């Protein structure tokens, strides 16, 4: 459709007049392709800004976690090189002194019993230092670790448990694997020890965009006032879980109904959770929908508490 030509005369505060000619395209004459292109351009700009912001936030969290990992390794190395070696030297001196006492001396018996106990304490300390180094540098299989934790807790409280994994298992980022494991282990501990539950189900979903861990029980639930306050007086479990979630950039959601049970959901972005860099792309965004639908179906049918 052709355009039309208009002529406008503008009068100013002076006596003279001025004329200007130009072409105008009315709204009814604009093409719909222009509107579509504008919408697409705005959408692409918003998506690009989202990707940029997400990468900036991920890099900031990754930098903080790398610094914390380096500090942990430094502490473990210093403990091994200085403290434990010094304590071991003191224990050897006490052992040498005890051997100079008569065999039937009561003091020698007390010293030897103390040395046996000190060896046990030293062994536990070395295991903690080793755990501090190895768990921070190795990507342990989360399902296996949580199953081992459930076996340990089942000796304290009798409850049936199940650890279910969905999606292809991925190696976790060594920077956050320890905090993910500790956070989920604390949720398991609460379910076994405090919830008085008869059934506990842990679901690990390795999604393309994020890692989701759900710990669900059919126990007594958490009172509403405790959820609102955020912690139990003189107990630090819930506080520690929230602090760990903040440290690794995870989202922690707790839903509980008295006498029906509790569900704890931990969601960690894939860029932070997985060892391989997984930047969000448009194709991955659309390819996540089948995974999300499968997870929703799994949660509503297979994890229904009885």
UniProtKB/TrEMBL annotation:
> InterPro entries, per this entry?
HATPase_C_sf, HATPase_dom, Sensor_HK_TwoCompSys, Sig_transdc_His_kin_sub3_dim/P
Q: Where is it found, in Gene Ontology cellular component terms?
A: membrane
Which SUPFAM superfamilies does this entry report, sorted A to Z? Answer: ATPase domain of HSP90 chaperone/DNA topoisomerase II/histidine kinase
Fetch the Gene3D superfamilies from UniProt.
Answer: 1.20.5.1930, Histidine kinase-like ATPase, C-terminal domain
The secretion signal range is 1-21
Alphabetical UniProt keywords: Kinase, Membrane, Signal, Transferase, Transmembrane, Transmembrane helix, Two-component regulatory system
Q: Which GO terms describe its molecular function?
A: phosphorelay sensor kinase activity; protein dimerization activity
Q: What transmembrane ranges does the database entry give?
A: 31-52
Q: Where is the Histidine kinase/HSP90-like ATPase domain?
A: 175-272
Matching PANTHER family: NITRATE/NITRITE SENSOR PROTEIN NARX-RELATED, SENSORY TRANSDUCTION HISTIDINE KINASE
Give the protein's recorded name.
Answer: Signal transduction histidine kinase
Originating organism: Granulicella aggregans
């Amino acid at each position: 459709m052709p355009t039309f030509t208009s002529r406008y005369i503008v009068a100013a505060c002076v006596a003279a007049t001025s004329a200007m000619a130009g072409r105008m395209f009315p709204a009814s004459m604009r093409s719909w392709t222009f509107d579509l292109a504008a919408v697409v351009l705005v959408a692409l700009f918003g998506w690009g800004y989202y990707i940029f912001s997400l990468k900036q936030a991920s890099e900031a969290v990754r930098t903080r976690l790398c610094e914390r990992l380096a500090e942990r390794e430094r502490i473990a190395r210093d403990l091994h090189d200085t403290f434990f070696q010094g304590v071991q030297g003191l224990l050897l001196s006490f052992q040498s002194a005890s051997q100079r006492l008569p065999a039937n001396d009561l003091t020698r018996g007390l010293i030897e019993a103390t040395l046996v106990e000190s060896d046990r304490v030293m062994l536990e300390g070395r295991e903690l230092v080793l755990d501090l180094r190895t768990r921070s540098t190795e990507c342990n299989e989360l399902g296996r670790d949580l199953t081992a934790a459930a076996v340990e807790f089942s000796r304290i409280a009798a409850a049936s448990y199940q650890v279910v994994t969905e999606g292809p298992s991925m190696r976790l980022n060594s920077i956050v694997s320890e905090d993910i494991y500790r956070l989920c282990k604390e949720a398991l501990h609460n379910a076994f020890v405090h919830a008085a539950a008869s059934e506990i189900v842990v679901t690990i979903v390795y999604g393309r965009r994020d890692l989701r861990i759900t710990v669900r029980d059919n126990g007594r639930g958490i009172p509403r006032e405790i959820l609102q306050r955020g912690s139990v007086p003189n107990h630090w479990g819930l506080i520690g879980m929230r602090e760990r979630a903040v440290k690794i950039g995870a989202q922690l959601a707790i839903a509980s109904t008295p006498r029906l049970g509790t569900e704890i959901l931990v969601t960690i972005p894939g860029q932070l959770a997985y060892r391989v860099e997984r930047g969000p792309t448009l194709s991955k965004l659309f390819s996540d929908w089948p995974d999300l639908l499968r997870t929703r179906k799994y949660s509503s049918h297979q994890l229904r508490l009885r």
